[in-house]
Design brief:
- This protein folds into 2 domains: 176 residues, P-loop containing nucleotide triphosphate hydrolases (Rossmann fold); 169 residues, Glutathione S-transferase Yfyf (Class Pi), Chain A, domain 2 (Up-down Bundle).
- It is 42% helix and 25% strand.
- It has 11 helices and 15 strands.
- Helix 5 crosses helix 9.
- Bound molecules: adenosine-5'-triphosphate and magnesium ion.
Length: 357
């Protein structure tokens, strides 16, 4: 699959952008704050219906404008696919091949993208929430039922937490939420465990190669509880009431990343953490291919320059079959080496100009 064309109207700092793309390599060069990341954000939006850097959709509407529209035309086995997302203060409308979608989730499973940006180091370094969000997005992309379960789980969780904060509420009143939480939790945990197992298998191979055989990466799904959630909720009721929040459940689970048996989060060097983040992202791409038979599209935001030249080469070599979008402040030697099969564009204040010669 490849993206052939973009049309942005009042999206971030783009007033009107129409851009034809190269089926393999697209490199966007520009100074700070010109719109490079915004461009990748628009592409990502066409895949998941959400931004990778804000949860407030309306932030993406150009300042002063009433709405934005992002239209992405892709080619899938030679057939055209058009995805359109329009958003105003109070409305979000999605069209797929001109047909209005009833739910945002209909967008999923059309265009598959993987973004790798400096922010992704946080998956390795930061608190569990970042890792949960990482796997939640990945699994959602591959399995819409996961997204639905997760949304229902979160709703039930919010209800239970609200009740826990009320002193007068009896334990019995929580019963209905304990039941529905444990019902939704079951498939969520199963899907996560299954995904993490596949992820680990692929990721440890990539990490091994990237570290020239020096490092063994393990990824473990860590459950914050034993056995059945319903029982666990019953057991933790006192603590939950005291804290006014639900302390057990998949919203508390984590991924543990171990390099040569040591926790990467606490003991990994910057370089090791970067290698692991890169390996995770490349695994994502590979899993998309394995699960859907589609090639995902790789978005590399400002990350090449952060990698040493061996890792850059590894990355570039693995990109033979996928379409890639790369942003960078300048055209490095490594980037130049990719140019024979791609386009280079200059981004200046929301305008993009092709600069192939
Ligand atoms: N909703 C919006 N409307 C108009 N402009 C916006 C909006 N959101 C962000 N911008 C502008 O977009 C610019 C940032 O764009 P972007 O993040 O794509 O920069 P960049 O080219 O990736 O820069 P860097 O190299 O620093 O990462 C900023 O000038 C910001 O003010
Ligand atoms: Mg940027």
């Amino acid at each position: 699959m490849e993206i052939a064309k973009l049309n942005f109207k009042d999206f971030r700092n783009y007033r009107n952008l129409t851009l034809e793309l190269n089926p393999k390599v697209n490199i966007f060069i520009g100074d700070n704050a010109q719109g490079k990341t915004n461009l990748l954000e628009g592409i990502y939006l066409s895949s998941l219906g959400k931004s990778f850097r804000t949860s407030k959709d309306t932030e993406m509407i150009r300042f002063e404008a009433p709405f934005f529209r992002v239209e992405v035309t892709a080619l899938k086995d030679g057939e055209r696919l058009t995805v359109e997302i329009a958003l105003s203060e109070d409305q979000k409308a999605i069209k797929i091949d001109g047909v209005k979608a009833l739910k945002s989730s209909e967008l999923l499973q059309h265009i598959y993208t993987v973004i790798f940006s400096p922010e992704d180091l946080k998956i390795v370094k930061d608190e569990p929430e970042k890792r949960r969000r990482f796997i939640d997005r990945e699994i959602s992309l591959l399995k819409p039922s996961y997204l639905r379960n997760l949304a229902s789980y979160k709703k039930a969780l919010a209800q239970r937490n609200a009740l826990l904060k009320e002193k007068k509420v009896k334990d019995d009143a929580l019963e209905v939420w304990d039941k529905s939480l444990s019902n939704y939790a079951e498939p969520i945990i199963t899907d996560r465990e299954e995904y993490v197992k596949k992820l680990e298998e692929i990721c440890s191979k990539i990490h091994y190669d990237l570290s020239e055989g020096k490092e063994d990466l393990r990824i473990i799904y860590e459950r914050g509880m034993e056995g059945n959630l319903y029982e666990a909720l019953k057991h933790s009721i006192r603590i939950d009431r005291l804290r006014g929040t639900t302390t057990k459940g998949p919203h508390r689970d984590d991924l543990k990343l171990l390099v040569n048996g040591k926790d990467l989060r606490s003991f990994g060097s910057q370089g090791q953490q970067r290698t692991a983040a890169l390996a995770l992202k490349l695994s994502e791409l590979k899993l998309i291919k394995e699960e859907t038979k589609e090639e995902g599209i790789l978005l590399l935001d400002d990350v090449l320059s952060e990698l040493d030249s061996r890792r850059q080469k590894y990355l570039i070599n693995t990109l033979k079959d996928v379409q890639v979008f790369i942003t960078s402040a300048e055209l490095s030697e490594e980037l130049k080496s990719m140019l024979s099969k791609g386009n280079v564009y200059k981004v200046t204040q929301g305008e993009v100009v092709l600069q192939n010669d």
